[in-house]
Write a structure and sequence with these properties.
single chain; mainly alpha; 3-stranded antiparallel sheet
Amino acid sequence: MTEGRSSRRPSLPGWADIIGTRGAVQIGVIAALIVWLYWDQVYRLVWFWRSELDWSHGFLIVPFSLYLIHQDRDRIAQARIQQCWSGAAMMAVGIWAYAFCVKNTIVYPQAMTMLVVIAGAVVLMVGWQVLRHTAFPMAFLILAMPPPERYYRSITQPLQQFAAAISDLALGLLPGVTMVRNGINLSALDVSGNELAQFTVAGACSGMRSLLAFITLGMMMAFLTPRPIWHRAVMVLIVVPVALFCNCIRVVVTGLLMIYDWSDFASGTAHSLLGIGTFALGILIYSFVLYLMDHLFVDETEAGSTPAGASA
């Protein structure tokens, strides 16, 4: 009568079983020391996430990285636990690099060195095998760190030019409308040559900030649930094209609103809502791609397990 109970799947180990009380205390102490050492960087990142709308996704990246680690806790529990003093050397290198960057006012790598220190702490406490299982969640934190402004400008300008060119082609298909493009500035003329609207493709709408937000969104959806590696590889490959497509849609819709004298909806709160709608479009595209991969490609083992009588 009790045979049915033995078929129940074993539950995944909890963190209390994996790290224990002593490990929890060690993690808490080292985490507190790292936060104290990098408090200026933590404060700067949080301030940036709060003040820059295009970087508000930064608040999601840290808990999502922790979620990825939590999802992989079974393999972490099976990993070989071995304290390695090479982790202390990694921490020392990270702290030295941080001090060097602070002294020489090199801003961007300052936050990056925090990841080196965290990785060193993992190796010091539990070894290289655990670091291998937690490397991607830690690397994912890079998407929460804004790059230098000069990199923004060098990448944003080509993206603006691309969005302006696509918008010029799309809006030029409207009946009775002739588009004139000068760089990232677009003008719409009627059949008499009178100007209907003039607008500029803003960097915030089509630049690197929105691109990084779309990349983060796609990566999160790819790794939210357990999937084959090739599923995630496909998602990684499409994040940039999807981001460019959605940004071009945003610019084209803004141009339509300007041309047809609905300019009130092309600025302010309505424009912000349009940006949210663009991200919703990105979610739909990502979800559709994931749906296709889940349903159009059937694993051979699943297909072979179908009963023979089912094909009658």
